[in-house]
Design brief:
This protein is mostly beta strands and 909 residues long. It starts with 25 loop residues before the first strand and ends with a helix.
């Protein structure tokens, strides 16, 4: 082999029995000081190894080993002064294998073949050496020489060397040093490869005399060789889940690990093993995949298994570093346990005619995981429910079966029922040979007194529409379920929407009560329904439905729309579609027969369109406007008549007639149409004003002049007879009423307190009075209507009290009309007598008015009005305001519209 000797050492140790694959402990090979890439170093020989399963590995990434044992350099390698060493590992399936150290010697055969033997050293190294290698965590002693760096310029100059970079004057400082004069590279402390895997420093060389560079700067790379100083660790939580009853070989999960040592070396080649749980689980030594080794895993026996996992680097060698962890393997549930009943059978009693009643709870037990589809029960009635009388549900809280009666049972039809109920789960059974279980349930039906039952829940009759009243349709009867007899049962209608049917309450016969019309909205698809009710002697009832199928008769003839629009088209005769309708059904309706009357033959023509429509087309150009077209239309049976269609021919826009062709200016009709809403609004306003300002027609009072205080007739359509009563009295004789001075308390509307006798006497408030107006003068009131010359007022205040029931008034203790105190002077005794007589009558009349319902007359008489000023400028206004000549009536001109209206009502004409 070029540039070196290859020592192929084949050491075969012959034993009587070989227990494992074997290779020599060490091997020395002389190689060039710089080994090129692809250089074949040596060939490793093995003994007692299984060639098929033999596996050879290297620890040094600068070399590789082929399957035949040949070691080849993968990159240029510089052999150090003390040589270079790497390991080769051989292993087959028979055992743990063995390790061999390969020592490379540069250029010279070694003097000894033991570790620690001194090797030959070279004394000079060219400028630009390959990377240097040192072992991590070297224990010393320090400083330790690594290599001497020699520049070719040493042959010409006296030189010195400088050094800079990480590990020297950069972090981490002080790891390396370089002898300034000799160029010796030294290491001063251990280095951790997992922290610093490589160092790159710059070396420069200078002339010692001139301090000028004598060579190019050189980058020195120092690689830190790995040693197995880190044990593997787990990267994930060791939590796994596998279904119970899984087949052997089912994957449980994969153990994931990491190792900080150098990748691609035995230092990170991890071997996996289980220390516990080997009877249930296994782990792949290379991949770390855990699998089952049995199919007997049962969650109901044990739901979790704790397994100890060991991981060891150096491919599991004895000197490998290891770590352990506990893996938790949880067994997932499958439905391998069917629900079981707590009893072997059930017996229950049920009343007939019960509906939607819970009659039985059926508890079950299930070993599967609670509240999962493997545990939740599902019950099925497998036998005995052919008529659908029962249903069974699951109680979501207790998982019990709930048996209900969903359709009433009939004691007369079945006195007992035998059911079979099966309990299942929402999930199907797996991993077991067990089957779903069933349980018998015996039900006894008890008898109840029932109402009558019709012979059928629904009965159908066919009747032609328009049959005469009284026509027999049929009979619908009921029987007692216990006696099977119809005796004593009465029949009634529960519903009959159109009142078309009469029912004989004794026999159940159905007869026509009113004309039956198939086209009625009460008939749907030719069906009319009524509900019958049967009542027995104990007032128990039963119901049934009578369906009357109404047959159609030809009682309708086809009709067409009375008005149609035909849009005029230029250079084309217009046409339109005329569609007829008939409420009857086939064969009493379409197809229809259309015939145009001869009088229209010159103008129109009909063209068939379909069975219910024809096309009406112009035969010539016709004038715009309305044309009446008559046609004879008959149905399939010939039932029909002549019908007139009003066809309006017009110019159209968007299929709508135009009253007149549009132009720039508007015509008179268009302007009128635009002004019409404004005119209507104005009329509405005028109408409202009219209602607001108009009053009843003034009433002309016929003054007989000799009434002497007796009541006279009045027009009750005007202010009311009560108003004119007082006015009349005041007009006939002003001496009849002498008005006392000062203030009564104001009275409420409609009460006798507001009667005519206290009108106007309200202190500093103005009041509506009848026949008088008053002005406030120095705390007193003076009547301008009823005061006479024979009557004087004495200064003073009215000190009386007013009885609010029927108008009785007192003046200082005396009754109004009977006595006055000495503050009033009555000179004429006749006047006083007249005053008293009229006062008594008025008291009686006012009492009568107070008894009228709803206060009708009270509303017609005097009312009080609040005045918020110091006094009314107008005084009081009443029906008698014009009867006095002693007062100025100009104030009437300043009254508001409401008071003017009141005055006008009472004005004499």
């Amino acid at each position: 082999m070029a540039n070196g000797l290859i020592f192929n050492v084949c050491l075969v140790l012959i034993w009587s029995r070989a227990e494992s694959c074997f290779i020599p402990d060490s091997l020395y090979v002389v190689v060039p000081q710089t080994i090129p890439a692809g250089y074949e170093i040596t060939k490793v020989e093995v003994a007692d190894c299984d060639i098929k399963s033999l596996h050879l590995t290297l620890r040094d990434q600068s070399f590789t080993i082929h399957t035949d044992g040949t070691v080849v350099a993968t990159s240029p390698v510089s052999v150090e002064r003390r040589g270079r060493t790497f390991s080769v590992w051989a292993q087959d399936s028979s055992g743990p294998g063995s390790e061999m150290e390969v020592h490379l010697v540069g250029g010279t055969k070694p003097e000894a073949k033991h570790a620690g033997t001194e090797l030959l050293k070279r004394t000079k190294r060219r400028w630009g050496p390959p990377p240097f290698n040192i072992l991590e965590n070297d224990e010393g002693p320090f400083p330790r020489d690594i290599e001497r760096i020699v520049s070719d310029s040493e042959a010409k100059y006296d030189v010195y060397y400088t050094f800079s970079g990480p590990g020297y004057n950069q972090y981490p400082v002080g790891v390396f040093s370089l002898d300034r004069n000799t160029g010796m590279l030294r290491v001063h402390k251990p280095v951790d490869r997992e922290e610093f895997s490589v160092f790159r420093l710059i070396t420069s060389v200078f002339d010692i005399h001139t301090n000028k560079p004598t060579d190019e700067p050189l980058e020195i790379q120092i690689n830190i060789d790995d040693m197995n100083d880190n044990a593997p660790t787990f990267t994930d939580q060791l939590q796994f889940t596998v279904f119970e009853q899984s087949n052997a070989g089912t994957v449980v999960g994969k153990v994931n690990t990491t190792d900080r040592d150098q990748k691609g070396t035995l230092h990170v080649e991890i071997r996996y093993s289980l220390l516990t749980g080997l009877d249930l689980f296994d782990i792949n030594p290379k991949t770390g995949v855990i699998t089952t080794v049995t199919n007997t895993l049962d969650r109901e026996v044990k739901d979790k298994h704790m397994v100890t996992v060991q991981i060891k680097d150096f491919n599991g060698a004895v000197n490998g570093l290891s770590n352990t962890g506990t893996a938790t393997i949880t067994l997932a549930d499958i439905n391998d346990n069917p629900p079981t009943f707590t009893k072997t059978s059930y017996a229950v009693t049920v009343k007939e005619n019960e509906n939607e009643n819970l009659i039985l709870r059926i508890p079950v037990e299930d070993k599967d995981l609670i509240n999962t589809p493997n545990w939740i029960s599902k019950f099925i009635i497998t036998k005995g429910n052919e008529n659908g009388n029962f249903r069974i549900d699951t109680d979501p809280k207790t998982n019990e079966g709930l048996l209900y009666v969903s359709k009433p049972l009939d004691y007369e039809q079945a006195k007992s029922v035998k059911l079979e109920i099966t309990a299942q789960n929402e999930a199907e059974l797996r991993g077991t040979q067990a089957k779903w279980l069933s349980i018998p349930v015996d039900l006894t039906v008890t008898n109840e007194d029932e109402g009558p039952e019709f012979i059928a829940p629904t009965i159908e009759f066919t009747v032609k529409e328009n049959v005469p009243n009284g026509t027999l349709i049929g009979s619908y009867t009921a029987v007692d379920p216990e006696t099977k007899s119809s005796a004593g049962i009465k029949y009634y209608k529960a519903t009959d929407p159109a009142s078309w049917i009469n029912v004989d309450k004794n026999t159940g016969e159905l007869r026509v009560a009113n004309i039956i019309d198939r086209e009625s909205p009460f008939v749907q698809n030719g069906i009319y329904s009524i509900i019958m009710k049967a009542v027995d002697a104990s007032s128990k009832t039963g119901t049934g439905t009578v369906i009357i199928r109404v047959e159609d008769v030809n009682d309708n003839m086809p009709t067409v729309p009375s008005k149609l629009v035909l849009c005029e088209k230029e250079d084309e005769l217009g046409s339109l579609l005329v569609t007829a309708e008939d409420n009857d059904q086939i064969p009493f309706s379409s197809p229809f027969i259309f015939n145009l009357l001869p009088i229209h033959a010159d103008d129109w023509v009909l063209h068939g369109f379909n069975g219910t429509a024809v096309t009406l087309q112009q035969k010539k150009v016709l004038h715009l406007g309305i044309h009446k077209v008559s046609m004879d239309i008959k149905d399939l049976q010939g039932n029909g008549d002549i019908q007139e269609v009003e066809v309006r021919i017009c110019k159209c826009r968007n299929e709508a007639c135009l009253a007149k062709e549009s132009s720039v200016s508007l015509g008179a009709l268009a302007l009128l149409a635009m002004l019409l809403p404004l005119v209507l609004l104005l009329l509405l306003c005028l109408l409202l004003v009219f209602f607001c300002v108009t009053t009843r027609k003034n009433i002309e009072i016929d003054d007989a002049g000799d009434s002497g205080g007796i009541l006279i007739k009045s027009n009750t359509e005007a202010p009311g007879e009560e108003v004119f009563l007082f006015c009349r009295l005041a007009q006939q004789d002003s001496s009849l009423i002498t008005v006392p001075a000062t203030g009564f308390e104001p009275a409420a509307k409609g009460s006798v307190k507001g009667s005519m006798l206290n009108a106007g006497w309200l202190g500093n408030k103005s009041s509506s009075t009848i026949g008088a107006h008053s002005a406030h003068e120095n705390g007193m009131f003076k009547s301008g209507c009823v005061t006479s010359d024979a009557q004087e007022y004495r200064s003073g205040q009215y000190d009386g009290q007013y009885d609010g029931q029927y108008g009785t008034q007192q003046f200082n203790g005396g009754h109004f009309g009977s006595s006055f105190d000495n503050r009033y002077l009555i000179q004429d005794s006749a006047v006083l007598h007249t005053w008293q007589t009229n006062g008594i009558y008025l008291h009686q009349k006012l009492a009568y008015l107070g008894t009228e319902e709803d206060g009708r007359y009270a509303d017609d008489i005097i009312h009080s009005y609040g005045f918020e000023g110091a006094g009314s400028a107008a005084g009081s206004v009443g029906c008698c305001s014009d009867c006095g000549d002693n007062d100025n009536l100009d104030f009437l001109n300043t009254l508001g519209p409401k008071f003017k209206t009141l005055a006008d009502v009472c004005t004499k004409r």
